[in-house]
Amino acid sequence: MLRRLCSLLILSSLFFSVLPTAAAKLCNSNDNDALLEIQEALGNPPDLVSAWQLDTDCCTGWAIECNSEGRVTYFFAFRGNHPFQIPPVIGNLTYLQGFNFIEIPSLTGTIPESITLLRSLERISISWTNLSGHIPSFLGQIPSLKYIYLNDNKLSGVIPPSLGHLPNLTELNLSENKLTGGIPRSLGSSTGTSRPLSSIVLAFNQLSGPIPRSLGYLNIAYIDLSGNNLVGDASFLFGANKTALWYLNLGWNSLSFNFSDVKIPSQLSDMVITNNKIYGRLPPSIAVPYFEEFNVSYNQLCGPIPTGGSLQLFDSWAFSHNKCLCGIPLPPCQ
Ligand SMILES: *[C@@H]1O[C@H](CO)[C@@H](O)[C@H](O)[C@H]1NC(C)=O
Ligand SMILES: *[C@@H]1O[C@H](CO)[C@@H](O)[C@H](O)[C@H]1NC(C)=O
Ligand SMILES: *[C@@H]1O[C@H](CO)[C@@H](O)[C@H](O)[C@H]1NC(C)=O
Ligand SMILES: *[C@@H]1O[C@H](CO)[C@@H](O)[C@H](O)[C@H]1NC(C)=O
Ligand SMILES: *[C@@H]1O[C@H](CO)[C@@H](O)[C@H](O)[C@H]1NC(C)=O
Ligand SMILES: *[C@@H]1O[C@H](CO)[C@@H](O)[C@H](O)[C@H]1NC(C)=O
Ligand SMILES: *[C@@H]1O[C@H](CO)[C@@H](O)[C@H](O)[C@H]1NC(C)=O
């Protein structure tokens, strides 16, 4: 018994003494080569070089993640020394599940088509860069995509309808670009079909036309369409059955619809509809939620402000510049 224990101890100590050398370089060499090319394209910025650790083992770098086979699953790029484009070699990182290019003004050009080779890719994040051109419709050919963050770039053109065909798309943030055209109907749903989309952020672009009704069939949590040129009805984004919705910002558009019969979801916490052409009354159900953020100013609303909820906690600026709203915090109704 004791002998067996001893040999077990010897064996395990042997094992552990061998382990560090066996694991000396986990990073797959093809993946390492591809990352090296990306690092060079970025101009070998010192912060990035030390965060990636390509000269020792990329899998130990804090800005890189690998799977147990040493294949790169995630990288984070955050510096660039001279103008560069995302190199097509990114398509060689076969096991990549996500990547981030964040706050790199020197990043220009477009998204390379080679990323359609990445069959496990779930997250694309390119934000606060000078990425330009159109959002490529080939993103719709990567069915594994769940999170698309392309906010705060210089993207122009239309939102490709192909994004709406991604079965697992959960979060879409295209805010602060120069996108034009309408919101594709395909991003929504038709009656009876459920989609995992839980957050859609298209704020501060130049989107125009009506909001597609198909967005009203989603049980979505977060909607920000503010700062565009959207027109027409948006009443279908409200409703008692929108049980997930907690954030809704439609401000700074040209939406025009009757607010009187809208049912405000009781769990809504942020509602901003300022600077539109919304008319009618504030519906009684608006007194139910506890709002953290609320602004209906600069519309054409009329009638008494419902009491009994959280509306009286906001100052008059949240209600100002309407046709004839009245009651606390505005002057009393006649
Ligand atoms: C990327 O893959 C292509 C095609 O397999 C290959 O020719 C090329 O050498 C690879 N590049 C790097 C840097 O590994
Ligand atoms: C990126 O954009 C900023 C301002 O948005 C500009 O000052 C800068 O010159 C641009 N950089 C390149 C490399 O184009
Ligand atoms: C979509 O998500 C489901 C559930 O997580 C998963 O089983 C499926 O493989 C995903 N589809 C694609 C194309 O990645
Ligand atoms: C979308 O992008 C904005 C920047 O424009 C960022 O502040 C925000 O956190 C993002 N929103 C979501 C819901 O991802
Ligand atoms: C909510 O109800 C409306 C009709 O009252 C219906 O058209 C819509 O599909 C429902 N939405 C959800 C998310 O169930
Ligand atoms: C808005 O709807 C209410 C209730 O259905 C109705 O009484 C009112 O006349 C409508 N207002 C306008 C301006 O159409
Ligand atoms: C509501 O929005 C207007 C601008 O549209 C702004 O002036 C006002 O300060 C905002 N009020 C609150 C309470 O956020």
From TrEMBL:
Name of the protein this chain belongs to: Polygalacturonase-inhibiting protein
Taxonomy, superkingdom: Eukaryota
Source organism of this protein record: Nepenthes gracilis
A Pfam family annotated for this UniProt entry: LRR_8
Keywords: Leucine-rich repeat, Repeat, Signal
InterPro entries: Leu-rich_rpt, LRR_dom_sf, PGIP
Localization per Swiss-Prot or TrEMBL: Cell envelope
Source organism phylogeny: Eukaryota, Viridiplantae, Streptophyta, Embryophyta, Tracheophyta
Signal peptide start and end residues: 1-24
